[in-house]
Amino acid sequence: MSCHSERGIYPPRNLLLACALTGHQPILRPEIVKARRFIVKHLTLLLTLLPISVAAFAQSPTAASGQPFVVEYYYKTKWGHADEFLRLFKKNHYPLLKKEVEMGRMLKVWMDQPRYHTTEDGRWDYRVTIVFQNATVATEPFDEAALQKQLFPDQETFQREEQRRFEILDAHWDLPIKTVDLEAQSR
Fold first, then answer.
1. For 111, what's the count of Cα atoms within 13 Å in the CB-facing half-sphere?
2. Is 128 helix (H, G, I), strand (E, B) or coil?
3. How many whole angstroms separate alpha carbon 126 and alpha carbon 88?
């Protein structure tokens, strides 16, 4: 990339200034032109869509009205480790969730397990559903470490067992849920 003028060729670091002062257009390599077009195109798209997505979230009934906010947490264990996972979950994680219900941060917590098997790609072993007080409570920072220390004084054992609980997972994902009112009139 360079800018040609009667005074010679300017190095890249002074290119834009030199071209602006001399009134010449910079000579750009095709890959640079292509990269700039890509960046401008995608940056424009991002800046166009960002305000729309922020406005849509702000206007969603759950976020705006303070309604309960539901999140499903899926756990897919490695074959043969489902019982161990459940034992560790009930020992170490469920007491934390129950305490958060007592504190009022969460309204309800329960676990489901599929009755029958599915295909491997769609398989999950446990689904924990948590109903939070509202979307703000669900997403604001919460000091769970202090609660862990209060409920589990033997932190070394607690940390080791929690690490094991996640080692025996093949996958874990979280899914915020939105209720669809089937009785509501269509727009």
1. 14
2. strand
3. 13
Boundaries of domain holding 133 = 65-177
Q: What single-letter amino acid sits at 37? A: R
Residue 184 placed within a domain: no
Residues 52 and 132 grouped into a single domain: no
Helical residues (DSSP H) of 116-184, grouped into ranges? 135-139, 144-151, 155-167
> How many domains does the chain divide into?
2
Let me know whether 76 and 135 are in one domain.
yes
| AA letter at 24 | H
Tokens of 55: 């406005």
Torsion of CA 44, 47, 48, 54, to 10 degrees: 160
pLDDT in tens, the chain (187 residues): 555 545 555 555 555 555 566 666 665 567 666 766 766 565 555 555 555 444 444 444 445 468 999 999 999 999 999 999 999 999 999 999 999 999 999 999 999 999 998 898 899 999 999 999 999 999 999 999 999 999 999 999 999 999 999 999 999 999 999 989 999 887 6
